[in-house]
Amino acid sequence: MDVGCEYHGYLSDLTRTWPPCGRFSAAQEELYSLILETNKECIKLCKPGTSIREIHHHSVKMLISGFQELGIIGKGKSIQYNYLNPTSIGHSLGMDIHDSTSLTSDKPLEPGVVITIEPGIYIPSVPILNEKAPDRFRGIGIRIEDEVLITENGHEVLTASVPKEIPHLTTLMNMGGGGSTTESHEVRAACN
């Protein structure tokens, strides 16, 4: 779910991913945990003086290492990373979704700036360009995006109240199962 809203001329941008069956498969949980860890570690880097490019490079190192451990990309095959995650770790946010073209990814962040932190992965259902991800990961896409305000002493996560931890998502997805429809039975049958 990639959503946003507008409030007094300012925009937001938020992404959450959850399992369609209300619980994570083992493969989904492995990937989700890696993306979540990367999200949290990159948020820790958000402070005055750091650039989006520095945060991006940190995320790429974390994700390549994690993807190699999971067997999604081979050692020395970091070029495949770009096919699995073709986006940057984040962008500026304000009166437009990608707010300012003058805020380059090399410019040091300053208090009052709002950026997104959004690591992710998209593994195609079929292999592309000699990419050899294990079958259990095929067709999985995950992105976790937060809005981060740079403060004088660090940062504030503006989207902190939106669940992203696995137990919170699982609980949220399994709440209120009282009403049922034909559609929900079909989804549940596909998940079993």
TrEMBL record:
Question: What does the similarity note say?
Answer: Belongs to the peptidase M24B family.
Which protein is depicted? Peptidase M24 domain-containing protein
A cellular component term, taken from the record's GO annotations:
mitochondrion
Sorted alphabetically, the Gene Ontology BP terms of this entry are: proteolysis
Q: Alphabetically list the UniProt keywords.
A: Hydrolase, Manganese, Metal-binding
Question: Sorted alphabetically, which Pfam families does this protein's record hold?
Answer: Peptidase_M24 (PF00557)
Q: Which cofactor does it need?
A: Mn(2+)
- What positions does the domain Peptidase M24 occupy? 1-152
Q: Coiled-coil intervals in this record? A: none
What Gene Ontology molecular function terms does this protein carry? aminopeptidase activity; metal ion binding
Gene3D superfamilies listed in its UniProt record:
Creatinase/methionine aminopeptidase superfamily
PANTHER family noted in UniProt: XAA-PRO AMINOPEPTIDASE 3
